[in-house]
Amino acid sequence: MAKSALLVMDVQRVIVERFGDDPDYLPRLNRAIDAARAAGIAVIYVVVGFRKGYPEVSPRNKAFGEIAARASAGGGFAGGPATEVHPDVAPGPDDVIVTKKRVSAFAGSDLDMLLRAAEIDSLVLTGIATSGVVLSTLRQAADLDFGLTVLSDGCLDGDAEVHRVLTEKVFPRQADVITIDEWTKAVTA
C-alpha cells in the first residue's frame, strides 16, 4: 500500500503576496492540510531559502541571479518574516520544513532522503507557482518513480492559461490531477 506525503511548496509570505489574487486559496489549501493530518499523511513544507549573501546562486542562473541582485536592496529569500510559511497555513509541530535552493523541491534539499527514510512512495503536490515549483517537482518526482497526485486548486500561477494547460494537459501524463475536495473526501473516507 502506498505511503503518501502532502507537499506544500513555496507558500511563503513573499510569494503569496505576489500571487494573492485568489482570496480562497489559503483557506482551500488549509482544508487539504487538515485532511492530511487527520488521515495520518505526512505534511511537508518546502520553502526556498538561501544563506546571507546568496553564495549558492550563480550569476548565470537567470531567475535566482535576479533575486540575489535585488536582495542587496533588501528583502529576498535570505531569511526574515517574508520568507516564512504564510501564517494561514502554518506548519504544525509534527510537520517537516525542507529548504530548497532552486525551483524543484528536490534541488539543493534533503527532500529525497527524508521521503526514502520514511518509506514514502507517493506525493500529493500543491504550491505556488504551478509553472514553477509544481512543474519542476512533478517532473523530478516522476523520474524518481514516486506516485503523484496534483491538487489542481491547491496550485496557483500568475497566468491562468498556463495553469489550465499544465493541470489539464501536461500533468495528467505523469500524475492524477484532482481537486482538494475530491482528495479530502478520498483520504477521510
TrEMBL record:
The keyword Hydrolase applies. Residues 4-182 form the Isochorismatase-like domain. Pfam families: Isochorismatase. The keyword Transmembrane helix does not apply. One of its GO terms (molecular function) is hydrolase activity. It comes from the Bacteria. SUPFAM superfamilies: Isochorismatase-like hydrolases. Keywords: Hydrolase. InterPro entries: Isochorismatase-like_dom, Isochorismatase-like_hydrls, Isochorismatase-like_sf. PANTHER family: ISOCHORISMATASE HYDROLASE, PEROXYUREIDOACRYLATE/UREIDOACRYLATE AMIDOHYDROLASE-RELATED. This is Nicotinamidase-related amidase. It comes from Nonomuraea jiangxiensis.
